[in-house]
Amino acid sequence: MKDNKRTFAASPLMMLICGSIILALALGFRQSFGIFLKPMTGDLGYGRETFSLALALQNLVWGITQPFTGWIADKYGTSKALLIGALVYVLGLVFMAYSSTGVGLTLSAGVLIGIGLGGSSFAVIFGALGRAFEARRRSMVLGIAGMGASFGMFMVPPSAQSLINSFGWFKTIIILAMTCILMFVLSIGLIEEKKPLQEKRDTGSALSEAFKHRDFWLLGIGFAVCGFQVVFMLTHLAAYVQDQGLTQTVAVNALAIIGFTNMFGSLLAGYLGGKFPKPYLLSAIFFLRAIIILIFILTPISQTTVYLFLGAIGLIWLGTVPLTNGTLATIFGVKYLSTLSGLVFVMHQIGSFAGGWLGGVLFDRTGSYQAIWITAILLSLVAALSYLPVKERPISELKTESQQSNVANA
């Protein structure tokens, strides 16, 4: 009787669709938080450093949480990790709306939403998709899912701004919380089929193997730089644009442009990742970021230059995510992909914390974002160089070659 028992499992296509929509919601909400900076600080009386610290902590908690939610997804199923993430995300948004002090904002927008993102974003979703699709299609599939996340980034900020204009920031956050409940239903589409995998390692062995591997840490360094740049711009770009004399509408459009162009950028990254070595593509992305940011800060700011800058940077905004996860899957396999992806994401979020927080600190101290822009350029070069030595080959092959070499030398 037990052998005849059948349980529901989502098809790979359903997993891709539901996973992409969840990413669109989770990342779209997160992309919009920057437009709440001015209205909330203006109404509640705390400075940009306080708001920046809350969002910086959000990214750090998101990163710290990701390996644990990734482990839950690997061990007990992606849908269970998503249910936890969605519940905490909704609670975080509600408490954020009712937070009238810096401490309340830090606990809600920082801690709770950080945990919610940990259970509803890249490591959890990409781990499931990496297991659902074969290696030859994996890079393209991850690029499509990244495109879904970018669609949310394109749609949510202008929608949220329209709601703020009509109802104010408080009711807008409540509306976002109610929309976030959709993740509960969509999590059903990520129930995985139990497939026997050839990998015999346990979690501890997989982690030990990764921690001893040079390329795991090189991928983490590059991802940390990505987090620094992305979260600095997400948190401070809207305010920076307005500080230069442009309107709130331009600032919101700028955030939407990132999401729009990155829909194509993520898809392109996924496609190219199936054709060319992913570490080289990652290196190229960061060389391009350095050049684009340098041109932007040296050019007199206007509506046109802002839109051109965000259009260009958006093309390579989240292309790092499918390429990094695809490289991890190639090197370390897919059985513990969510866990290992989560651990690399911790490094991404350490960079995110630094970028978001230091942007606010230096602005409050100097009245300018210039030092952070320059730092972002220098770190781009560090990241670009860190990817070049990475070898996109299964670790099992490298072990076999090493053993054969040792035998031959003996």
TrEMBL record:
<dbReference type="InterPro" id="IPR050327">
    <property type="entry name" value="Proton-linked_MCT"/>
</dbReference>
<protein>
    <submittedName>
        <fullName>Putative MFS-type transporter YhjX</fullName>
    </submittedName>
</protein>
<feature type="transmembrane region" description="Helical">
    <location>
        <begin position="216"/>
        <end position="238"/>
    </location>
</feature>
<feature type="transmembrane region" description="Helical">
    <location>
        <begin position="371"/>
        <end position="390"/>
    </location>
</feature>
<feature type="transmembrane region" description="Helical">
    <location>
        <begin position="336"/>
        <end position="359"/>
    </location>
</feature>
<feature type="transmembrane region" description="Helical">
    <location>
        <begin position="81"/>
        <end position="99"/>
    </location>
</feature>
<feature type="transmembrane region" description="Helical">
    <location>
        <begin position="250"/>
        <end position="273"/>
    </location>
</feature>
<feature type="transmembrane region" description="Helical">
    <location>
        <begin position="305"/>
        <end position="324"/>
    </location>
</feature>
<dbReference type="InterPro" id="IPR020846">
    <property type="entry name" value="MFS_dom"/>
</dbReference>
<keyword id="KW-1133">Transmembrane helix</keyword>
<keyword id="KW-0472">Membrane</keyword>
<dbReference type="Pfam" id="PF07690">
    <property type="entry name" value="MFS_1"/>
</dbReference>
<dbReference type="InterPro" id="IPR036259">
    <property type="entry name" value="MFS_trans_sf"/>
</dbReference>
<feature type="domain" description="Major facilitator superfamily (MFS) profile">
    <location>
        <begin position="12"/>
        <end position="394"/>
    </location>
</feature>
<feature type="transmembrane region" description="Helical">
    <location>
        <begin position="50"/>
        <end position="69"/>
    </location>
</feature>
<feature type="transmembrane region" description="Helical">
    <location>
        <begin position="140"/>
        <end position="157"/>
    </location>
</feature>
<feature type="transmembrane region" description="Helical">
    <location>
        <begin position="280"/>
        <end position="299"/>
    </location>
</feature>
<feature type="transmembrane region" description="Helical">
    <location>
        <begin position="105"/>
        <end position="128"/>
    </location>
</feature>
<keyword id="KW-0812">Transmembrane</keyword>
<dbReference type="InterPro" id="IPR011701">
    <property type="entry name" value="MFS"/>
</dbReference>
<feature type="transmembrane region" description="Helical">
    <location>
        <begin position="169"/>
        <end position="191"/>
    </location>
</feature>
<dbReference type="GO" id="GO:0022857">
    <property type="term" value="F:transmembrane transporter activity"/>
</dbReference>
